[in-house]
From TrEMBL:
Protein name: Uncharacterized protein YyaB-like PH domain-containing protein
Domain Uncharacterized protein YyaB-like PH, residue spans: 62-137
Keyword list, A-Z: Membrane, Transmembrane, Transmembrane helix
Record's keyword annotation contains Transmembrane: yes
Superkingdom of origin: Bacteria
InterPro entries: PH_YyaB-like (IPR009589)
Provenance organism: Pontibacter amylolyticus
Record's keyword annotation contains Transmembrane helix: yes
Pfam families: bPH_4 (PF06713)
Residue intervals passing through the bilayer: 15-33, 45-66
Length: 145
């Protein structure tokens, strides 16, 4: 039997907003620079739209949730899960620049699990996620950065 999931919204502050706006303005700027070329061949805008679709999918489709003893995440086309019992350390307020990052903001949570695995998430409330993870696995060490 599956338990009801507890959902955490992603923090959407920071660079991702400027990236999305920039990607939206790029096709408009290119179109305005050479209207005649695009009027004759409108399909030339399609390669410019593909990155916009991907970034928008990531922006609007990033979410985290706890269900059946797993911390699950989805960020655009990427999704996965981490067994809460395998989590050993959470670094709060840190930003990871390498590895798996289904996150849209800085100062999130670096979650270390198994022996060498880690994932970076950035929920709206770091404290709420930490409290819920600790309620499942009291052996998690929490470090503030």
């Amino acid at each position: 039997m599956m338990s009801e999931p507890k959902v955490y919204a992603a923090n959407r502050k920071g660079l991702i907003q400027f990236l999305l706006i920039g990607m939206l303005l790029l096709p408009v700027a290119v179109f305005l620079l050479d209207r005649e070329a695009f009027a004759a061949r409108p399909y030339m805008l399609l390669p410019l739209l593909a990155p916009i679709v991907l970034i928008a999918w990531i922006y609007f489709g990033t979410v985290y949730w706890l269900q059946d003893g797993r911390l699950r995440y989805k960020s655009g086309p990427w999704k996965g899960a981490v067994a809460v019992e395998s989590i050993t350390l959470i670094e709060e307020g840190k930003t990871s620049w390498v590895g798996m990052k289904p996150a849209l903001a800085r100062n999130g949570l670096v979650i270390k699990y198994n022996r060498f695995d880690e994932i970076y998430i950035a929920p709206e409330s770091n404290q709420e996620v930490i409290a819920d993870l600790l309620s499942i696995n009291r052996n998690i060490q929490v470090v503030k950065r």
